[in-house]
Amino acid sequence: MPTSPVPTGEANIAAPAFPPSAFDFANLAPYRQAMLPEFAADVDSVAATGASRYYLEVKLEWPKGSSLSQDGLHLKGLEQVRYTNTENVSLSEVYFRLYPNLPGYDGKMSIDTVVVDGQPVQPELEAKNSALRVPLGQPLLPGAVTDISLSYQADVHGQTHQGYNIFSASENTIALAGFYPAIAVYDETGWNIEIPPSYGDATYLDTSLYHVELTVPEPLVVAASGSLLQNRPNSDGSQTLSLVSGPMRDFYIVARADFAVISQTVEGTVVNSYYPPELAEGGKSALRYAADSLRVFNERFGRYPYAEFRRGGNAHYGRWGRVSRGGSRGAVDL
Description:
This protein is mostly beta strands. It has a domain at 29-189 and 196-257: Sandwich (Immunoglobulin-like), CATH 2.60.40.1730. It has four helices and 22 strands. The chain has helices spanning 29-32, 41-48, 68-71, 280-301, and strands at residues 52-61, 73-84, 91-97, 108-116, 119-120, 124-126, 131-140, 145-156, 167-170, 173-177, 182-183, 186-187, 190-191, 208-217, 221-224, 227-233, 238-244, 252-256, 260-266, 269-275, 308-311, 332-333. The chain has an eight-stranded mixed sheet with strand order 5-4-8-2-1-14-17-16. A four-stranded antiparallel sheet has the order 6-7-3-11, with no helix packed on it. It is globular. The model is unreliable at 1-16 and 313-334 (pLDDT under 50).
């Protein structure tokens, strides 16, 4: 199989500092930019219901001269999340899903530090290290809000033999499903931290809002959920992308050094198709199928509310909701 160029890891990407700087969770303006103008108010509606708001600083790195398919890569992250207890009972803890530790993801995620409302706490791993229990200093009453900060890191392996390689760095393509600790769903059964099978879609999360500051070596072309607000080159040969989402259940990233991109606008939504150069015909076909499908879905099920839609692989289409099957990934479909 022909190989495509990949970054050599020459950029020396330093670990982020902890705790991260205070983030203005009250400012909803950036999230609205990920929506079509007529749906911008949906951000305010979802925020008013107590949807969690994530702020992430994520950096990718791998050894100089290494190959993605052979060595994988390392991820370092900082996360701040504002969580509202939308249940009718008090909560003494909050659980996070560590998806890379599931068999179907075949990665490894570890937590370094956890701070709740400015106070360090000692978390506990459960469900074969795929769930993190974060104790709260005092019970969180219904309607109350808490701010949780985490520093973490993850190893992204090469091609895996389980699942669908949705968390992997292989054949020069980086796929990062579940690259951050995600708050688990609390419902009538309690906290949902069961270990799902390695096939199908493991994601079961509440609708949230995301702001991601992603730092990667400069040659990488990134396809991600939401919309790009800014792309800043750094002096060390890396670039930092500021990405925001409208309401969606999770956030997904795919990157490759030689991605080509073609686009088409469908009823206000920009549809993007990403593909390696040797698959140009397939990339054009994917764009045509996605654009046609979007028109049909808009007519039959209602307008797609996001400003962008990205196409690169299996199908996930929908709006949002706790368990909207195959949906709520929002503006990305890779």
